[in-house]
Amino acid sequence: MVGGSATAGPRVAVLMGGPSAEREVSLVSGRECAIALRAAGYEVVELDADHDLAARLIQIKPDCVFNALHGRWGEDGCVQGLLEWLRIPYTHSGVLASALAMDKARAKAAFAAAGLPVVASKLASRDVVSRSHVMPPPYVVKPNNEGSSVGVYIVREGSNAPRLADTMPETVMVETYAPGREMTVSVMGDRALAVTDIITDGWYDFDAKYKPGGSRHEVPANLPPEITAACLDYALRAHRALGCRGLSRTDFRWDEGRGLAGLILLETNTQPGMTPTSLAPEQAAHCGISFPALCDWIVKDASCNR
Questions:
Q1: 26-45 mean pLDDT
Q2: Coil, strand or helix: which one is 220?
């Protein structure tokens, strides 16, 4: 754990940017967190993660790393392993939980083993998926190891097989489409914060997530009590099933006409976005936790050896 009072001013290196497809979102998250941490009394060094990251961290000698990276390399256990090697406490989940959550197929297997509701899915080659349906439509095709709805295809009934971009990985996940309302729950340590209903005109894609006006968030969601309770319970159980620490966010779909049977867990994000339109800070604020206080809590929860 990272201690010290605001007056002690521990040095925190905020990792942001990096080489993933989510670089621009990470830069926004990192800058917002840096501002909040300075307001909370920390000495902050903003660090755009590149191939010389290890050398720069050795030079900076931070007391803690605030990991605001999103996507591959920053969220999949790679940077976490580097920080373990350097013995620098870091925020969010450790190596195993990060790698497990980023691998959608393995995360889904962990959820199913914990008795959590998931849809049927399979891994298939990009070429096979582009040639013919590998499961009856409607279904979703997505990279097995990306976030922020990067590279997601929805194949409707009556549609041809999707023509996947060459930028998609060789192996992709294909999963049964889960209809209904898009909802999410953030977990802070051992506490599920709230349920947010995400309201959009269409699919909750990259633009809907990050562009102003792309979506509207209703927090707390107007839901039957049993659905609210189930979302909070499932999110905390998902957090624990993966071995997460710190802050995580779990996404759901709910088909209202099917009641509790229509609630499906989609995935868990071990490093939720921290931008002005992000969901986790919004839920924290609903619970009376300001953004600087949230960032301060995340830093104080940082550790290694996990």
A1: 96
A2: coil
Q: Dig out the tokens for 254 from the structure.
A: 């709910």
d(CA 196, CA 254): 12
- Count of CB atoms situated within 10 Å of the CB of 108: 20
Res. 29 pLDDT band, cuts 50 70 90: very high
Q: Domain-by-domain residue ranges, the chain? A: 11-92+292-300, 101-118+179-287, 121-176
Strand 171-176 to 121-125 pairing: antiparallel
Active-site choice (93, 98, 186, 269): 269
161 DSSP 8-state letter: P
pTM: 0.90
For residue 269, indicate whether it is catalytic.
yes
148 is catalytic: yes
> Would you call 175 a catalytic residue per the annotation?
no
- CA–CA distance from 267 to each of 58, 136, 241 (Å)? 34, 22, 12
Mean pLDDT of the chain: 91
Given this structure, which CATH class describes domain 11-92+292-300?
A: alpha beta
